[in-house]
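Sample entry (308 residues):
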Amino acid sequence: MSLPAEFHDIAERVNNWGRWGADDEIGTLNLITDEVVRRAAASVLGGRRVPLALPLRQDGVQTGMIPGRVNPLHTMVQINQEPFGPGTVACSDDAVTMGLQAATHWDALTHVSHSGKLYNGRPADTVTAHSGASFAGIDKARHIVSRGVLLDVARTLGGERLDGGHAVTPEDLDAAEELSGTRVGPGDIVLVRTGQMQLYLAGDKQGYAFPSPGLSVRTPEWFHARDVAAVANDTLTFEIFPPEIEGLWLPVHALDLVEMGMLQGQNWNLEELSTVCGELGRSTFLLSATPEPFTGGTGSPVAPVAIL
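Predicted structure, serialized as tokens:
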């Protein structure tokens, strides 16, 4: 089944191929300029820090629905061993096996392809079993620090959590932006709260995973119009799942990552941030969210921190 004309029409309108040169590998992260970072730093008023990552644990967010995304398996490889002889300093070391997109993470621009192409028109077969992503891997996103803007769609629409069939539309984003009192601008990183994380935090992993609210296929144009640098939310699939257009799977992934070159993040815990922003009466903050630089990775865990 080929992608429908509706998808290709949107793709043409949001396409950024060549905008920053034929060899560009970071897409909309180019919008995070020194001026943008200075503006982001100025948004810190009190210094309050809010962590946005889920704990890395074996009983993590993955349910087995996505093949290969194994929750972290933590193993101790030495415990209080004295490597230099009895009576010397003892060491404990550990190791972990996990999917790079198992918990709170960024998707690299090479995470998906469509029509045989990756971002900037590169061939999809440049992602190989031996080296992973030789172009636009997650290791190219070397410093993600910018102004974050929380768009709390759930509370904007009058509830703590959107229902599983809700596709977040540009109109929803407009309403959340208006309620926040902040205009999303070039280089901003937008965090969209649906409230879906509440299910996982309450122990309902299956309910968290499916069905899930998420971004509509119409939202990439909203982010493109505002020159947003990256987007993350508090769901497993990022976009509405099952899809709003029958048979059209992961269209928002393809539009964001392939056409626009915009990183997207999933499984971000925005609950405490929502509370703090409500207490302080604000929705902007300095956001530090640089992924672990796995060479050739098509995604990577991240431990983001909002500083208000």
